[in-house]
């Protein structure tokens, strides 16, 4: 029996995002050969989105760009953002997944942010740069991310993205219910 080939394009060249997409699809389609590659895809939003709406828009814009640029079975994009909630500021990611004409949107869990970090973001800094400065790391956003640092490694940016991608795939796995 021949293995199915699934061609995936991720709207980012960040290895954390590409690996999360590959891991998620490998879990969902264990018998398939997953060809997962990242590509530059502009978000069309600020480098550090500061609202849920802007973050969601960035993920959708990245997926749409990929759909117009290359042929694939799945297109995925993750956009990390920040917002202030009743319980305080938090970071999260929106996930956009497209397949043919279908678009599915998901969101990751929220990570509460320390007030000092949120203030730096409100002043115009980007989360990865703030975390690098505070924790004396280099390019943490292409590693465990703020999630890894603030959870002391119990969760990582990649693990949270992987989970969110699997959840966002639900409508594509069960089209009869959506």
UniProtKB/TrEMBL annotation:
Reactions mediated catalytically: XTP + H2O = XDP + phosphate + H(+); ITP + H2O = IDP + phosphate + H(+)
Xref: InterPro entries: ITPase-like_fam, Non_canon_purine_NTPase, NTPase/PRRC1, YjjX_NTPase
Organism domain of life: Bacteria
Entry GO MF terms: ITPase activity; metal ion binding; nucleotide binding
UniProt remark on cofactor binding: Binds 1 divalent metal cation per subunit; can use either Mg(2+) or Mn(2+).
Gene3D superfamilies for the chain: 3.90.950.10
Keywords of the record: Hydrolase, Magnesium, Manganese, Metal-binding, Nucleotide metabolism, Nucleotide-binding
Residues annotated to bind Mg(2+): 71
Ranges for domain Non-canonical purine NTP phosphatase/PRRC1: 11-173
A Pfam family: NTPase_I-T
Range of residues in the leader sequence: none
Quaternary data: Homodimer.
Family stated for the protein in its record: Belongs to the YjjX NTPase family.
Protein name listed in UniProt: Inosine/xanthosine triphosphatase
Native organism: Shewanella salipaludis
Gene coding for it: yjjX
């Amino acid at each position: 029996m021949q293995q199915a080939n699934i061609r995936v394009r991720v709207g980012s060249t960040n290895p954390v995002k590409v690996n999360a997409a590959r891991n998620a699809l490998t879990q969902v389609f264990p018998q398939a050969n997953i060809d997962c590659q990242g590509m530059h895809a502009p978000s069309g939003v600020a480098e550090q989105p500061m609202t849920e709406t802007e973050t969601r828009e960035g993920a959708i814009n990245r997926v749409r760009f990929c759909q117009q640029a290359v042929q694939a079975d799945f297109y995925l994009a993750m956009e990390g953002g920040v917002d202030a909630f009743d319980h305080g500021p938090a970071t999260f990611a929106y996930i956009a997944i497209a397949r043919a004409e279908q678009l599915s949107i998901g969101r990751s869990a929220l990570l509460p942010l320390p007030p000092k970090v949120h203030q730096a973001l409100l002043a115009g800094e980007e989360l990865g740069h703030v975390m690098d400065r505070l924790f004396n790391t280099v390019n943490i956003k292409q590693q465990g991310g703020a999630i890894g640092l603030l959870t002391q490694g119990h969760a990582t940016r990649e693990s949270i993205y992987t989970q969110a991608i699997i959840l966002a795939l639900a409508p594509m796995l069960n089209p009869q219910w959506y």
